[in-house]
Amino acid sequence: MAEIRGAVPKYLQIAGHLRELIEGGELAPGAEVPSERELAARWKVARPTAAKALNALRQEGIVRSRRGSGTYVVERSALIREHAPRYGAPSAAGESVTVLRAEVLEGPQEVTDALGLPEASTVTVRKALCAAGSRSARLITCWFPGAFADAAAPLLRSEPVPGGVSRDVEAAIGRAPAVVRESVGARLATDDERRHLALSSPSAVLIVHRIGLDARGVALEYREIVHPPGRGTIQQEYFTSSAADFRR
């Protein structure tokens, strides 16, 4: 029998356990995932909690339900990770950090929406240029609810914070991300991005967006990482037995 522990919601613990089984290969692509009834009995939770766990995996694209049949691991299981393996991780060894911006302001709608704040709420923004020798630089912009600036003074420092500001914020507010939602896209660089990244016009950039949610589903941070073209930042792993494109 599995055991529920800690303050993380039960459905997230169940979803996390299933995710580990899938990523570890114990539940292979095409394999059926335990049903709501089975999960509820195994974890000693109500069926709605088990259903919520499966739905969380469906939203991540890890499993897919078939009407009247069950829930199965998707045939093409891809794990996409941005270069830094830990959400809010400090800069890589030997990487220089230049703080370009650190202030409290009225948040753009995209940011307030991501943080789950009312329109025109104040947010704290911290933007930095990170570079390592001859390697291409990257721009990292972090937005936090404006109230966090009072609790975590390092957010408004104009110099780099050893270990990164996310750790200071987590310590100050007594909460840490339990779930991270990440999306990856591309667009043309803005004038500001071209200037800081020394790009020609026009140039495309890779954009990684991350939202860190605490155990109650409240957004703690919205982060944007801008990578210049030519820098390898995404890795994919999938089972060749189910990847038709691999054989073409």
What does this structure look like?
- The chain has about 250 residues and is of the alpha+beta class.
- The protein is built from 7 helices and 9 strands.
- A 6-stranded antiparallel β-sheet has the order 4-5-6-9-8-7, covered by helices on one side. The chain has a 3-stranded antiparallel β-sheet with strand order 1-3-2.
- Strand 8 and strand 9 (about 220-225) form a beta hairpin.
- The radius of gyration is 20 Å and the shape is globular.
Please specify the SSE layout and strand pairing:
Elements: H1 10-23, E1 32-33, H2 36-43, H3 47-59, E2 63-66, E3 70-73, E4 96-106, H4 109-115, E5 122-131, E6 138-145, H5 148-151, H6 165-173, E7 179-188, H7 191-197, E8 204-213, E9 219-227
Antiparallel strand pairs: 1-3, 2-3, 4-5, 5-6, 6-9, 7-8, 8-9
Helix pairs in contact: 1-3, 2-3
InterPro entries: Bact_HTH_transcr_reg, Chorismate_lyase_/UTRA_dom_sf, Tscrpt_reg_HTH_GntR, UTRA, WH-like_DNA-bd_sf, WH_DNA-bd_sf
Pfam family, one: GntR
Domain HTH gntR-type: 8-76
Question: Summed up, what is this model?
Answer:
The chain is an alpha+beta fold. The protein is 25% helix and 27% strand.
